[in-house]
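dude i think i finally got it to work??
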Amino acid sequence: MYIDENGYKLFTLDEIKHAYEVELQKLLGADFCIKPDSTADNLISAFALHELILQTQIAYICSQFNPETVSGVFQDAMYERIGVCRIKATPTVFKIKIIGKGGFSGKAETIVISSGNNEFSNSTDYTLNDSGEADIEFQGEALVNSDDIFQIIQAPNEITALSGKAYDIVAGHDEESDDDYRLRFKNSKAINSKATRNANLANLSKYVDNIAFLKIIDKKDDNTFAAGTAQIIAKHNTTDEIFAKAIFDSAADGIEYTGNTTVIVKDNSGEDLEIKFEKALEPEISIKGTLKLKQGYSIAGTKASAEAKIREYITERVFGLGSIIYATEFIVPILEADGVEAVLDIAVKKDDGEYADSVTLARNEAPKFQEIVLLEGDEGLSE
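look at this
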């Protein structure tokens, strides 16, 4: 292993063995060589392997002291020193009405309901009203849609049924990956200096579920913007008031922000100031396709499996502001579903438009995936 001010270089097994051979030639003569499979070869190979292991361990330690390569718990410790903490996983939370014996009170985590293979438990204590109803909060790891059908898996005897659909759904997310955490750290290094674009993005990134839902546009991006003006576009996960205050706290003096949303915030002297930003529009995106089923599979079960695969792909893929959504992207996740032999056709549409091969969103639009229609055989897009 070679280390200097530019970093380090790992040697291969052959390079290490050659270095041993050169040193032995100094002692035993220039004509000395290591014969393959000889006693000397076996001994030197053993020493070289130990050196390989040691240099790999040193390289790993070196990487954990470099902010560009640090990972895992070492990354948490390093980045937290400047106040940048990893975004932790959050559960999906929603409400649904339960029915049972009037006046009955129950504790948190005593009711378990399911949708498909996903289970959710009530996160709070509850009391049924005199009519035997209560709207209570559930949480779990999987995503939830307003049209999902739930059933009770476990509950006190006084709870008899569920009524209606899930509502007030707040989607959960996985823990921030090392790569995403590293990107946010790089952006945040400018926070305590001047309010650069990276600093603004870093300050505001905590208020969006993914950096793909946040953009800052100025004259460098769009020459129709007047000098000294900019636009912050966001699909934020908080209130307009909190997001506007975050803009005020991070924005550079002298920049005029534009957008479709105006919020009044107070400065340090108590004066009212107008903060504008562009709140992202969320057009509804529909997907429609025709499937060829494997023998012995029903359309109902196969459709449910394929739809789940599509929604899983949508979550992992993250279609951000200004995305281009290609219908063919959904073929692979559909083929991963049980019972699907082939995808005969697939198309997408925006709002009430026509189905097409792709949909292009404006820079202030983030997709809201709604209807997924999957049909069997030749009942395709002509319907």
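The mean pLDDT is 85.
im so relieved honestly
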